[in-house]
Amino acid sequence: MLFNKKNNEQKVLDCLARLIEPELFEKLTLQSRLTVTNKGTEISLSLPFYAPTWLAQLQQDSAQQLTTLLGQEVSWKVSYKVPTYEHKKVAKRNNNIKNIIAVSSGKGGVGKSTVSVNLAIALAKNGAKVGLLDADIYGPSMPTMLGEKSTKSTTVDGKLLQPISAHGIVCNSIGFLIEDKDAMVWRGPMASKALQQVLNETDWPALDYLIVDMPPGTGDIQLTMSQNVALTSAIVVTTPQDVALIDAQKGITMFDKVDVNVAGLIENMSVYSCASCGHQEAIFGTGGGKKLAENQGLPFLGDLPLHISYREDTDTGYPTVARDVHSHLVSPYLTIAESLAINLYKNLKATIEQINITEVK
Ligand SMILES: Nc1ncnc2c1ncn2[C@@H]1O[C@H](COP(=O)(O)OP(=O)(O)OP(=O)(O)O)[C@@H](O)[C@H]1O
């Protein structure tokens, strides 16, 4: 049979088109190049996000079809390059940081910090380079949650602060600089200035994502912070009950006001899961976060159970995703991290061309 390069390229594309959701496929192929030759079949793919489960599923689902279509087994060569997404323009930008993602909540105590730290570690576990900035001036919790309670920020050159490395991520926190009681009395402009200072005066290594744990609420402080930092996107964390959802809605409105994309909602403490017997109970109600996301036309990134280990693990300085003992508590975070990375790619515009699908040999 005569080898038809163009035909085979089209066959591969058609097969992938059946397996990838249309919106995402269109965006991926818009910036793709696929070439096929007859010396063995290798799909060389440069992906703009880290999504190991999504990729494994795609490879598994397409394996049989591709082998049949091309008459030989297909191997994949995958590399990753997370793009820098377009974001609102503010004065200063650190070139080492590709994307800054704020994690916020309309209401205090919904688990925003717990989600921030575990999500940051989950993104890193999936393969990304991740930093975490603790901007929660009312109660910086990252020193405790990362097991670095007695650590203070240091500087090598007398100018830039060295971030703390822990559990596969780097972090800086207002808590590494000042005592908690000092932070509590800060007013808006001071708090916002402190955030910008910690952001701009830290010696961040090259990062795909910097996760910012924002102070809870939607007041002037949060508004000013959101305005003055070059945020790529924001995540709103909520619990399922009505009162939290009303505040989550305020959070979404706040980001709309300052023209920051909302990457999606996460529902924390969705279902109580008993550590002893596994019994599950929806004590705060269920499905509220998903419904709010639907009403707002926003992605729902996922839900997380209410489980004692999440609290114990961060209290002891070893976040659940880093400990990796309870896979049923880790996997929701890995899924949310994938969902976040894919949704950012789907909904934002990359500043540079990113993806190549090339079949070689
Ligand atoms: N899914 C969960 N299961 C069990 N406990 C949780 C869960 N999420 C958070 N917690 C616990 O709830 C408490 C509040 O969480 P966290 O400090 O992360 O909330 P927050 O929204 O950042 O609070 P703040 O408003 O003080 O910033 C902590 O003790 C934390 O360990």
From TrEMBL:
Database matches in Gene3D superfamilies: P-loop containing nucleotide triphosphate hydrolases
Coiled coil, from the record: none
CDD domains (alphabetical): Mrp_NBP35
Alphabetical list of InterPro entries matching this protein: Mrp-like_CS (IPR000808), Mrp/NBP35_ATP-bd (IPR019591), NUBPL-like (IPR044304), P-loop_NTPase (IPR027417), YlxH/NBP35 (IPR033756)
Source organism, top-level taxon: Bacteria
Record keywords: ATP-binding, Hydrolase, Iron, Iron-sulfur, Metal-binding, Nucleotide-binding
Binding positions (ATP): G106, K107, G108, G109, V110, G111, K112, S113
UniProt record similarity statement: Belongs to the Mrp/NBP35 ATP-binding proteins family.
Subunit structure comment from the entry: Homodimer.
Described purpose of this protein according to its UniProt entry: Binds and transfers iron-sulfur (Fe-S) clusters to target apoproteins. Can hydrolyze ATP.
NCBIfam families registered for this protein in UniProt: PRK11670.1 (NF008669)
UniProt protein name: Iron-sulfur cluster carrier protein
Source species of the chain: Psychromonas aquatilis
